[in-house]
Design a protein that fits this description.
The protein is mainly α and 314 residues long. The protein contains 14 helices and no strands.
Length: 314
């Protein structure tokens, strides 16, 4: 199969990052204007996107891996854990943070995952604290303070429950990122992520079956938004990201992926008209600066070359 050119790779990763970022804002629109249930959206999104990713694997890549991943008992158990505690946890907490807060804050809080990973690795004594780590953590803390308070010590810029879900989303993504590594070394990412989505979607179906929806809230425009979130904001975004890795380095894809939180912020502010103060923009700048700093870290990029957002699929 012909490898994409560097120019094509750059276009793919930029489009993937933009789809991820805008997808979160579109989900916020569905929650606020059309009263779409967060459980239903996460269930439907995971099931459809997972099936589409598995279909891409079947058509374009090694189709024997699709069922082969289940032939090893240990791997099968790891995949189920990854689907429930990784994929489902990341998707649900992220969407809940959007519902109770907004897409901009939810996306930026989820991008704190690398900081949680750094802290975890230091506690486990798998790495040592460096000056770059201190700068990274400092930027994240300062950025979060300004983002969540807009510079005021007396009030928060978004509801507390939205912040809690956002922080949990970052923790879930940190687990997702670390736990995925051994699986992704053995099988194609489309197989692992596709099955993880299907597992998470099936599990959440017991809470809210995908066929149970208030059709009175669905019109032509809201249906288009749903298609965008499920297909473009999930399946195509991840597919484009993976394809870009064939012609770009992990460092390049990580840097360009910082377009995601920027896209989420800009669309939240200018499309949904969410208020965003000066200090919140300053906090956003700090967090995006932290992302770029991590991407420029040769060791971090090398260790996380297989992971979105790593693989997050917002």
């Amino acid at each position: 199969m012909k490898r994409p050119t560097r120019r094509t790779g750059l276009l793919l990763v930029m489009m993937g990052a933009l789809f991820w970022g805008v997808g979160g804002t579109v989900a916020q629109k569905l929650f606020q204007q059309y009263a779409i249930d967060v459980n239903w959206l996460v269930t439907t999104r995971l099931l459809i996107a997972g099936l589409l990713l598995i279909s891409i694997q079947f058509v374009r890549k090694d189709r024997t891996q699709i069922l082969g991943v289940w032939k090893n008992g240990k791997v099968a158990i790891q995949l189920i854990i990854f689907g429930l505690c990784g994929m489902l946890a990341v998707q649900y907490t992220y969407m809940a943070s959007i519902k109770h807060g907004n897409a901009a804050v939810a996306t930026l809080l989820q991008y704190l995952a690398p900081v949680f990973i750094i802290v975890y690795l230091i506690i486990r004594k798998q790495t040592i604290l460096t000056k770059r780590d201190l700068l990274t953590v400092s930027l994240s803390l300062i950025g979060c303070f300004f983002l969540l308070t807009n510079g005021s010590f007396s009030q928060l810029s978004v509801p507390t429950i939205g912040i809690v879900w956002g922080v949990l989303s970052g923790v879930a993504l940190a687990f997702y990122t670390l736990y995925a590594v051994p699986l992704l070394k053995q099988y194609d990412s489309l197989v692992i992520v596709g099955w993880a989505m299907i597992i998470g979607g099936i599990a959440l179906s017991f809470v809210h079956p995908p066929w149970q929806i208030d059709y009175s809230s669905i019109n032509a425009l809201s249906f288009f938004y749903l298609i965008f979130v499920i297909v473009f904001g999930t399946m195509i975004a991840f597919w484009f990201y993976i394809e870009s890795l064939q012609s770009l380095s992990p460092k390049e894809t990580s840097l360009i992926s910082s377009l995601e939180p920027l896209a989420a912020v800009l669309t939240t502010v200018f499309w949904l008209k969410e208020p965003f103060g000066f200090f919140q923009w300053l906090g956003t700048t700090c967090i995006i600066g932290m992302i770029i700093l991590l991407a420029l870290n040769k060791n971090y990029s090398k260790d996380n070359q297989t992971i979105k957002k790593p693989l997050t699929i917002n």
